[in-house]
Amino acid sequence: MNIRHLRYFVTVADLGSITRAAEELGMEQPPLSQQIRQFEQKLGVKLFERQTRGVKLTEIGATLIPRARAILELQHQFQVTAEGLARGEVGHIRLGLAGAVPLLPVIPLAIRSFRDIAPDVTLSLEESNTPALCAALHESSTDIAIVRPPVPDPARLSVSHLLDEPTVIALPRGHRLTEEPIISLDMVADDPLIIFPRELGPGFHDAILSAYQLAGVTPILGQQAPQIAGTVPLVAAGMGVSVVPRSLCQIHAGGVTFHTISEPAPRATLAVAIRSGQNMPIVSRFVKILRTTCREWEKMSPEAQFPASGF
Q1: CA distance 84 to 62
Q2: pTM of the entire structure?
Q3: Cα(243)–Cα(44) distance, integer angstroms
Q4: At what angle do helices 3-15 and 59-87 cross, to 10 degrees?
Q5: What are the residue ranges of helices labelled H in the chain?
Q6: Is the C-alpha dihedral spanning 205, 210, 215, 221 positive or negative?
Q7: What pLDDT digit, counting tens, does each position of 61-70 carry?
Q8: What pLDDT, in 10s, does the model give residues 93-127?
Q9: Are 273 and 137 in contact (CB under 8 A)?
């Protein structure tokens, strides 16, 4: 039995005539009659009663016809899905996001742009740290990860630069520098620096400490935050100051003010990572849109990038 036999069976049943079914299928009547007889012989049942004018389903044929239609529909859906996957228009993307990345406005903007052209693709998002996201890529439990480079085991991943996000300094409300719009890092040298563990994002962690060194000071390391976004509540609690990606200024912590850092100021670099050799069109299509959206976003003014931040 094959799909062709099922299609012949359903077409003859729908039209009630082998002659008309042959016309519908673009073939001659004798070969179609032969195919129907061969199908009946393979199944060991009689599907049609031959009548003077056309054919009629037997009881067995009437019982089997819904199942034949269901198989043909599954075959159609299989083909449609395969073609959609080839075009990157259907499927499921598991997207991993490094700490604080969901707060960056360009990320939902990129997702929205992708959904506009591929509305049948489902996306599931998970926030974690860069090492964990890279491990998830290796284990194939994540398809794409937006990470903070460098990444562990880069030989097994394909990593592309996305953007360099500016940073700001977060001060507890009432700090002596609260009214200063621009602050240099040497001005907060005596304030404990709240920072996240290096293993969660060594590139950004080292960029912060290097900026302090370039400013001619050594920071006083204070309380560690469990993640990048976790520094803001600790600042609000008066435990110190923190250098954070500018996107964190969207966290409406009542006890924190955010200020531009004068140069040298660190940058929070982001990259997109996928498994090396990954060839799913849906993944390639999303990464292309993500990179394009990030390039366009970096050209925008800070006011357009963060319209609600006050910067």
Answers
A1: 34
A2: 0.76
A3: 77
A4: 120
A5: 3-15, 18-25, 29-43, 59-87, 106-117, 130-138, 202-214, 231-236, 281-298, 302-305
A6: positive
A7: 999 999 999 9
A8: 999 999 889 989 999 999 999 999 889 899 999 99
A9: yes
